[in-house]
Amino acid sequence: MDRQLAAFLTVARLGNLTVAAQRLNLTQPALTKRLVTLEERLGVELFERRPRGMELTAAGRIYLRHASRIEQEYRQASEEIGILENAGMETLRVGAGPLFHLRYVTQAFLAARKSFPMLRLDLIARNNAQTLPLLVNGELDLVLGTIEPLGSEFLLHVIPLLEVEQAVALAKDMPCANKEVLSPSDLKDMEWVSYSQVPGSRELLTRYFTQQQLGTPRFAAQTTSFTAGLHLIRHSNLAMQVPLQLQPLVSRDGLRVLPVCPSLARSAAGIYLRESSLGIPAVKAMIEELRQITGAAHDQS
Question: What is the pLDDT of residues 130-148, one digit of tens each?
Answer without folding.
Answer: 999 999 888 999 999 999 8
